[in-house]
UniProtKB/TrEMBL annotation:
Transmembrane intervals: 123-145
Alphabetic keyword roster: Membrane, Repeat, Transmembrane, Transmembrane helix
Pfam families noted in UniProt: WD40_RLD
Superkingdom of source: Eukaryota
Membrane found in the keyword field: yes
InterPro entries: RCC1-like_dom, RCC1/BLIP-II, Reg_chr_condens, Ub_ligase/GEF_domain
SUPFAM superfamilies: RCC1/BLIP-II
RCC repeats: 48-99, 100-193, 194-247, 248-328, 368-420, 420-483
Source organism per UniProt: Camellia sinensis var. sinensis
Sequence ranges assigned to domain RCC1-like in this UniProt record: 52-477
UniProt cross-references to PROSITE patterns, sorted A to Z: RCC1_2, RCC1_3
Identification of the protein by name: RCC1-like domain-containing protein
Length: 484
C-alpha cells in the first residue's frame, strides 16, 4: 500500500516479468539452510516461508510479540506448511497457505483479521448492547446475569476484537482461497472459482456489501451482488476497493473522495460535495472495454485526458488514488491530483487520465525498468535524492543491469524484487506514527538500523534463498521466500 507517490515498471518486451512487493535478510538464515552438522539441508528445497520486519505494534509481524524487528525474522507459525502469498496492510498482515487457507495477525480494531465467528454490528449497535449489559449488571443479581450469557458472547467480538500477535486462521471462508489483499483497515480474499469475500471496516461501503450493511464486519462475507461474476483480482486502498473480472471489467467501490473511484464524482455548482461513496461494486465506464491485470500503487503525477476506451491489464489502489495500465502499456491514474505534484493549479482527476511521460509499461508498481514519481520524503522514490519528482524518473542502481520483478510501496518506504533479491529504500527511522497517538519504531527497510536510504539497498537473506513476493504495509514489510 502507498500514499503520496507513484511506481511503474516498464518493459521493452512483452515477456517481462510482473510486479509485486519485497523482503530482507535474517540472523536466523543459516538455520534455515543448514542442519545440525552444518551441512546444507536439501529436504526443504522448494518450501516457501514468510519473513517480516519493521514496526511490531499490535502484533502485525505475527512473531508472537509486539517487538519491532530491524532485520527480517522468520514467522515460525508456518514452520510445517508452505506459503504462497502475503499482504501487509495498515497494521495487520494476511498470509495465504499452499492449501488455500488464510491467516491474519495484527491490529483488529475494525475486525480486519476476520477471526470472529459472531454477528457483525454497527459501532452504535455494539456500544448500545454493552451499555445495556452493564446497566443490567448493576441492577440484577448474578444468577440473572448468567441468563445474559448469549448477549455477552455476542458483544465479545465486535469492533474492538483483540489484536493478534501471531497468525490466526480467518473464519467463514468456505472455499479454497487463491488471492488475498490487505487494505488500511479492511481485507479481501478471492476463491478459486472467482468469488470475492471481504471483511473489516465498512464506513464508506468499501466492503461492497450494500448501503444497509454494518459499518464493522468481523468475519468474511461474500459480496453477493457479484454472484455470477468471476473476480480475478482485487486491490484495496484506505477506504476504497477495486476489482477486475475475468472479462476484463474494472469495478470500484467505497469512499470516492478525490475521485479515487474513477466515476467522475464532482462538487456541485454551489461548491457542495455530494456523496461520493459507492456501497456496491460499480463499473468504471471509462475502462469498460479494458482487460485488467494486477498491481500495487502509490502516487501519481503527470496527467493527460483519456478520450477513448482502451484495453486495461493491470490495476492498483493507493490511499487517495487508483491506477491501471492498458494493453498498449499506457498508465492511467485517477484520484488525488495535488498542486505540489503537478506544479500547477489542477483539479483531482475524477476519471482515468493518462501519464504521458512513461515508456511502455507492464504493470503499475512493478517489473522491467522501474519508474517512480511524487512525494519523496526520506528518499522513498529511490532516485538518489529527496526532491519531489513531478515526472516519472527511472530508478537506477541495481536495476540498470537486472529487471524488476515486483515492487511494493508503504507509507514512506518502497521495496522491490530483482533477480531473486529484495531491495528497500526510503524511510528507515523512528518517530513515525500509525495514528496520532501511536508510535512507530521503524526497521521496515530491514537493514538493522534507522538510516534513511535514498537508493535501493539489498537485503541479505543468506545463501540458497530467493524472494518470490514482497509487500509493504504502513511501516512494516513482509516477503515470501523459497529455498533453492
Amino acid at each position: 500500500m502507498l500514499i503520496m507517490r507513484g511506481c511503474v515498471r516498464s518493459a521493452k518486451k512483452l515477456t517481462c516479468l510482473r510486479n509485486g512487493n519485497l523482503g530482507f535478510g535474517f540472523f536466523l538464515s543459516r538455520r534455515w539452510v543448514s542442519n545440525s552438522s552444518g551441512e546444507e539441508d536439501r529436504s526443504s528445497s522448494g518450501k516457501r516461508f514468510a519473513a517480516l520486519w519493521g514496526n511490531g505494534d499490535y502484533g502485525r509481524l505475527g512473531l508472537g510479540s509486539l517487538e519491532s524487528q530491524w532485520r527480517p525474522a522468520f514467522c515460525s507459525a508456518f514452520a510445517n506448511e508452505s506459503l504462497t502469498g502475503i499482504s501487509c496492510g495498515g497494521a495487520h498482515t494476511l498470509f495465504l497457505t499452499e492449501t488455500g487457507c488464510v491467516y491474519a495477525t495484527g491490529l483488529n480494531d475494525f475486525g480486519q483479521l476476520g477471526i470472529s465467528d459472531d454477528k457483525s454490528y454497527t459501532i452504535f449497535e455494539a456500544f448500545t448492547i454493552c451499555a445495556i449489559l452493564f446497566s443490567l449488571m448493576l441492577v440484577f443479581p448474578v444468577n440473572y446475569i448468567q441468563k445474559l450469557k448469549t448477549v455477552e458472547h455476542r458483544t465479545s467480538t465486535v469492533a474492538w476484537n483483540k489484536n493478534a500477535q501471531e497468525p490466526l486462521k480467518v473464519s467463514r471462508l468456505p472455499k479454497e482461497i487463491i488471492k488475498v489483499s490487505a487494505g488500511y483497515h479492511h481485507s479481501s480474499a478471492i476463491t478459486g472459482d472467482g468469488e470475492l469475500y471481504m471483511w473489516g471496516k465498512n464506513s464508506n461501503g468499501q466492503l461492497g456489501l450494500g448501503k444497509k450493511a454494518a459499518k464493522v464486519v468481523t468475519a468474511p462475507r461474500k459480496v453477493e451482488c457479484l454472484t455470477g461474476v468471476t473476480i480475478k483480482m482485487a486491490a484495496l486502498g484506505c477506504e476504497h476497493s477495486i476489482a477486475v473480472t475475468d472479462k476484463g471489467e474494472a469495478l470500484s467501490w467505497g469512499g470516492g473522495g478525490s475521485g479515487r473511484l474513477g466515476h467522475g464524482h464532482e462538487r456541485s455548482m454551489l461548491g457542495f460535495l455530494m456523496s461520493t461513496s459507492e456501497y456496491t461494486p460499480r463499473l468504471i465506464k471509462k475502462l469498460e472495454d479494458v482487460k485488467l491485470g494486477v498491481a500495487s500503487l502509490t502516487g501519481g503525477l503527470y496527467f493527460a485526458p483519456l478520450n477513448m476506451q482502451t484495453q486495461v491489464k493491470s490495476i492498483a489502489a493507493g490511499m487517495l488514488h487508483s491506477a491501471c495500465i492498458d494493453e498498449n502499456g499506457s498508465v492511467f491514474i485517477f484520484g488525488e491530483k495535488a498542486v505540489d505534484k503537478l506544479g500547477q493549479q489542477a483539479k483531482n482527476a475524477t476519471t482515468p487520465s493518462m501519464i504521458s511521460q512513461l515508456p511502455f509499461s507492464e504493470e503499475v508498481a512493478c517489473g522491467g525498468e522501474l519508474y517512480t514519481w511524487g512525494s519523496n520524503e526520506n528518499g522513498c522514490l529511490g532516485i538518489g535524492c529527496t526532491d519531489v519528482s513531478h515526472l516519472p524518473e527511472r530508478v537506477q542502481g541495481p536495476f540498470l543491469k537486472h529487471p524488476v520483478f515486483q515492487v511494493s510501496c508503504g507509507w514512506k518506504h518502497t521495496a522491490a524484487i530483482s533477480e531473486g533479491n529484495v531491495y528497500a529504500w526510503g524511510w528507515g527511522g523512528s518517530h513515525g506514527t500509525f495514528s496520532e497517538d501511536g508510535y512507530s519504531s521503524g526497521g521496515q527497510l530491514g537493514q538493522g538500523n534507522d538510516v534513511d536510504y535514498i537508493e535501493p539497498a539489498r537485503i541479505n537473506f543468506g545463501k540458497n534463498v530467493k524472494a518470490l513476493q514482497v509487500s509493504c504495509g504502513f511501516n512494516h514489510t513482509g516477503a515470501i521466500l523459497e529455498y533453492t
